[in-house]
Design a protein that fits this description.
Strand order of the largest sheet: 1-2
Order of helices and strands: HEHEEEHH
Number of domains: 3
Strand content: 5-15%
Mean pLDDT: 92
Largest sheet: 2 strands, antiparallel
Oligomer: single chain
Radius of gyration: 25 Å
Shape: elongated
Helix content: 55-70%
Bound molecules: zinc ion
Number of helices: 4
Low-confidence stretches: none
Protein backbone atom coordinates (compact mmCIF):
# COMPACT_ATOMS: atom_id res chain seq x y z
CA UNK A 1 0.00 0.00 0.00
CA UNK A 2 2.63 2.49 1.11
CA UNK A 3 4.96 1.21 -1.61
CA UNK A 4 2.32 1.80 -4.26
CA UNK A 5 1.86 5.26 -2.90
CA UNK A 6 5.62 5.89 -3.06
CA UNK A 7 5.76 4.70 -6.66
CA UNK A 8 2.98 7.03 -7.60
CA UNK A 9 4.69 9.88 -5.84
CA UNK A 10 7.99 9.15 -7.58
CA UNK A 11 6.22 9.04 -10.93
CA UNK A 12 4.52 12.30 -10.05
CA UNK A 13 7.84 13.93 -9.18
CA UNK A 14 9.40 12.80 -12.46
CA UNK A 15 6.43 14.07 -14.39
CA UNK A 16 6.62 17.45 -12.69
CA UNK A 17 10.36 17.67 -13.28
CA UNK A 18 9.87 16.90 -16.98
CA UNK A 19 7.12 19.50 -17.24
CA UNK A 20 9.35 22.10 -15.58
CA UNK A 21 12.23 21.32 -17.96
CA UNK A 22 9.89 21.53 -20.95
CA UNK A 23 8.58 24.91 -19.86
CA UNK A 24 12.14 26.17 -19.27
CA UNK A 25 13.08 25.05 -22.79
CA UNK A 26 10.00 26.72 -24.25
CA UNK A 27 10.87 29.93 -22.38
CA UNK A 28 14.44 29.78 -23.71
CA UNK A 29 13.13 29.37 -27.27
CA UNK A 30 11.00 32.51 -26.86
CA UNK A 31 13.95 34.47 -25.44
CA UNK A 32 16.18 33.31 -28.33
CA UNK A 33 13.60 34.35 -30.91
CA UNK A 34 13.19 37.77 -29.27
CA UNK A 35 16.96 38.28 -29.50
CA UNK A 36 16.90 37.35 -33.18
CA UNK A 37 13.89 39.55 -34.05
CA UNK A 38 14.58 43.29 -34.35
CA UNK A 39 12.16 45.38 -32.29
CA UNK A 40 10.54 42.39 -30.60
CA UNK A 41 9.13 42.97 -27.10
CA UNK A 42 8.12 40.26 -24.62
CA UNK A 43 4.40 39.76 -23.94
CA UNK A 44 3.39 39.91 -20.28
CA UNK A 45 0.51 37.47 -20.43
CA UNK A 46 -0.68 38.36 -16.92
CA UNK A 47 -1.41 41.92 -18.04
CA UNK A 48 -3.59 40.85 -20.98
CA UNK A 49 -7.35 40.91 -21.32
CA UNK A 50 -7.88 37.55 -23.00
CA UNK A 51 -11.18 36.35 -24.40
CA UNK A 52 -11.81 33.24 -26.44
CA UNK A 53 -9.01 32.05 -28.64
CA UNK A 54 -5.29 32.80 -28.53
CA UNK A 55 -3.99 35.61 -30.75
CA UNK A 56 -0.69 35.04 -32.60
CA UNK A 57 1.33 37.39 -30.41
CA UNK A 58 0.25 35.49 -27.28
CA UNK A 59 1.17 32.11 -28.79
CA UNK A 60 4.48 33.57 -29.99
CA UNK A 61 5.23 35.26 -26.66
CA UNK A 62 6.39 38.60 -28.08
CA UNK A 63 5.19 41.62 -30.06
CA UNK A 64 6.72 42.58 -33.41
CA UNK A 65 6.22 45.71 -35.50
CA UNK A 66 3.11 45.13 -37.63
CA UNK A 67 2.68 46.83 -40.99
CA UNK A 68 -0.91 47.56 -41.97
CA UNK A 69 -2.94 49.84 -44.25
CA UNK A 70 -5.25 52.39 -42.70
CA UNK A 71 -8.86 51.26 -43.05
CA UNK A 72 -10.00 54.77 -44.04
CA UNK A 73 -7.26 56.45 -46.10
CA UNK A 74 -5.29 53.34 -47.09
CA UNK A 75 -1.98 54.85 -45.97
CA UNK A 76 0.70 52.30 -45.07
CA UNK A 77 1.38 52.27 -41.34
CA UNK A 78 3.45 50.39 -38.80
CA UNK A 79 1.94 49.44 -35.49
CA UNK A 80 5.08 49.13 -33.39
CA UNK A 81 5.74 46.43 -30.81
CA UNK A 82 5.90 49.12 -28.10
CA UNK A 83 2.53 50.56 -29.14
CA UNK A 84 1.00 47.07 -29.02
CA UNK A 85 2.40 46.40 -25.57
CA UNK A 86 0.91 49.69 -24.36
CA UNK A 87 -2.43 48.99 -26.06
CA UNK A 88 -2.87 45.50 -24.62
CA UNK A 89 -1.07 45.70 -21.29
CA UNK A 90 -1.50 49.31 -20.13
CA UNK A 91 -4.75 50.37 -21.83
CA UNK A 92 -6.11 46.83 -21.19
CA UNK A 93 -7.64 46.53 -24.64
CA UNK A 94 -9.02 43.06 -25.44
CA UNK A 95 -6.38 40.85 -27.07
CA UNK A 96 -8.53 40.36 -30.18
CA UNK A 97 -8.46 44.09 -31.08
CA UNK A 98 -5.76 45.65 -33.24
CA UNK A 99 -4.84 48.89 -34.99
CA UNK A 100 -6.89 49.57 -38.13
CA UNK A 101 -6.51 53.35 -38.63
CA UNK A 102 -3.62 55.80 -38.87
CA UNK A 103 -3.27 58.49 -36.19
CA UNK A 104 -5.02 61.16 -38.28
CA UNK A 105 -7.99 58.93 -39.21
CA UNK A 106 -8.27 57.76 -35.58
CA UNK A 107 -8.62 61.40 -34.53
CA UNK A 108 -11.27 62.04 -37.21
CA UNK A 109 -13.15 58.89 -36.22
CA UNK A 110 -13.12 59.92 -32.55
CA UNK A 111 -14.54 63.36 -33.43
CA UNK A 112 -17.19 61.76 -35.66
CA UNK A 113 -18.30 59.37 -32.87
CA UNK A 114 -18.35 62.20 -30.31
CA UNK A 115 -20.44 64.38 -32.62
CA UNK A 116 -22.87 61.53 -33.32
CA UNK A 117 -23.22 60.83 -29.58
CA UNK A 118 -23.84 64.49 -28.81
CA UNK A 119 -26.46 64.72 -31.55
CA UNK A 120 -28.24 61.64 -30.26
CA UNK A 121 -28.13 62.98 -26.65
CA UNK A 122 -29.49 66.34 -27.80
CA UNK A 123 -32.27 64.54 -29.64
CA UNK A 124 -33.20 62.55 -26.52
CA UNK A 125 -33.29 65.71 -24.42
CA UNK A 126 -35.54 67.42 -26.95
CA UNK A 127 -37.88 64.44 -26.85
CA UNK A 128 -37.93 64.46 -23.04
CA UNK A 129 -38.63 68.19 -22.97
CA UNK A 130 -41.43 67.76 -25.52
CA UNK A 131 -43.07 65.11 -23.33
CA UNK A 132 -42.99 67.09 -20.07
ZN1 LIG B 1 -5.75 56.99 -42.35
Amino acid sequence: MSQAKNKKTRRQILKERRALQASKKAEQRVVDRIHRTPGAIRVNEKALTLGYGTPDFVRRGYYTDQPFNCKDCGKEQVWTAAQQKWWYEVASAPAITKAVRCRECRRKERLRVEAARKQSNDGLQRKRRART
